[in-house]
């Protein structure tokens, strides 16, 4: 269940195993690729290039895509087990992790995941976004925080080379934003973004990236982290270079602040009017403590990018703290730590929303190894015809989509972009995606 990278990697590993296996990949969206299509910023063609490798997997004859099928609504676990020896859940994480902060519910306070879904053209979110702030705060120093900050700071015309839908372009074009402030609670050596993602901030001719020299501080723990990781060292060197350079005159500014812990989102008449942070200091081991020195920032919107959270899946146990399904090497465990035979997890629903897309391959390999080791003891399905599941979905009136259908939608989106010199323009509406796929 789930045709993003996690599910597709698992299908590929199963197909390459010595087992005689066929795989059906169920997907809630009418189109495949999950996070790649609906979680990666549109100006990241390199990351979206992963689709090429995933495409080769879905081309395999023993792997079948069944899209526009919602687990828990259209089909339940017991029903799936009538058709399959085993079920792997790879549903990912799409919700924002909550942040307990005064003022978090004010109008103008947003979750990063919701904003990402909007600018990536997710069919289940509103077509408009309130872009009326001139100064914006982004909380968090991971790659998602940088994506959000970059999309907010860039001009809409800069994104016209990407696949952004028309409604996203029109929304961003009216945005009055001039300053985007990104806040990290700890220092540069503890930032979680990757070097490439960081350097991309400085590629826009319209955005000045600003790092304040007083935010470049290190303790013994920070220095140890630098020595242990080439990636951290590259990030810090980039930040150091930006901190000592002269500022240019680009019309928009993207500020990277470190050692600022958000304490309150301030507001008036129910709307965001500012952000209060407490200055922190390093404690020697890479952690920080508050100094009692507070700063008030004049912002009219706040985006929290503090992590994703998976959603509870019907009929499966769930750890609401970690946002994961309890498991042992991918085998789902019930409340008594007993294995739910034939039920497995992989990807973010298994390990939490951490790591890069490539890390998902290791998850999938472990889970598939567990499944294959259990093969002789798996319950046998009662419906063994390959077409039985198709008949089931049709009888339920579910307008499911297929891999061939994705080919039609893919060609349609490319045809929309061609007159404008663009690779594609993404179709947003679910009904339209489904109609084109099933035409």
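-> sequence recovered:
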């Amino acid at each position: 269940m789930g045709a993003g990278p996690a599910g597709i990697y698992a299908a590929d590993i199963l197909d390459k195993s010595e087992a005689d296996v066929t795989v059906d990949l169920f997907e809630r969206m009418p189109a495949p690729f999950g996070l790649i299509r609906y979680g990666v910023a549109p100006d990241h063609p390199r990351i979206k290039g992963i689709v090429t490798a995933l495409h080769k997997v879905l081309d395999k004859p023993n792997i079948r895509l069944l899209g526009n099928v919602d687990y828990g609504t259209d089909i339940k676990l017991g029903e799936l087990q009538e058709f399959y020896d085993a079920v792997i859940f790879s549903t990912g994480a799409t919700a924002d992790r909550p942040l307990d902060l005064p003022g978090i519910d004010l109008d103008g306070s947003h979750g990063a995941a919701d904003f990402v879904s909007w600018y990536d053209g997710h069919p289940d979110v509103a077509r408009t976004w309130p872009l009326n702030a001139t100064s914006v705060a982004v909380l968090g120093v991971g790659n998602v925080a940088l994506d959000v900050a970059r999309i907010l700071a860039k001009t809409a015309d800069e994104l016209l080379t990407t696949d952004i839908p028309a409604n996203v372009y029109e929304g961003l074009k009216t945005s009055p934003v001039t300053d985007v402030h990104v806040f990290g609670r700890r220092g540069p050596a503890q930032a979680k973004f990757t070097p490439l993602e960081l350097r991309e901030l400085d590629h826009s001719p319209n955005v000045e990236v600003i790092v304040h020299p007083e935010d470049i501080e290190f303790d013994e723990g920070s220095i140890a982290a630098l020595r242990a990781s080439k990636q951290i060292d590259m990030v810090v060197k980039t930040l150091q270079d930006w901190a000592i350079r002269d500022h240019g005159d680009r019309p928009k500014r993207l500020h990277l602040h470190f050692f600022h812990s958000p304490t309150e989102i301030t507001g008036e008449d129910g709307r965001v009017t500012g952000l209060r942070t407490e200055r922190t200091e390093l404690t020697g081991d890479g952690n920080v403590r508050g100094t009692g020195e507070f700063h008030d920032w004049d912002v009219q919107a706040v985006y929290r990018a503090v992590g994703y959270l998976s959603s509870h899946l019907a009929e499966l146990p769930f750890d609401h703290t970690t946002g994961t399904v309890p498991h042992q090497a991918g085998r789902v465990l019930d409340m008594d730590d007993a294995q739910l035979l034939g039920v497995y997890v992989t990807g973010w629903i298994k390990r939490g929303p951490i790591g890069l897309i490539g890390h998902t391959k290791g998850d999938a390999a472990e889970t598939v190894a567990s499944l294959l080791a259990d093969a002789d003891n798996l319950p046998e399905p009662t419906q063994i015809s390959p077409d039985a599941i198709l008949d089931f979905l049709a009888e339920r009136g579910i307008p499911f989509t297929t891999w061939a259908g994705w080919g039609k939608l893919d060609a349609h989106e490319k045809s929309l972009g061609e007159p404008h010199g663009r690779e594609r323009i993404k179709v947003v509406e679910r009904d339209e995606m489904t109609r084109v796929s099933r035409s």
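The CA atoms of residues 147 and 434 lie 29 Å apart.
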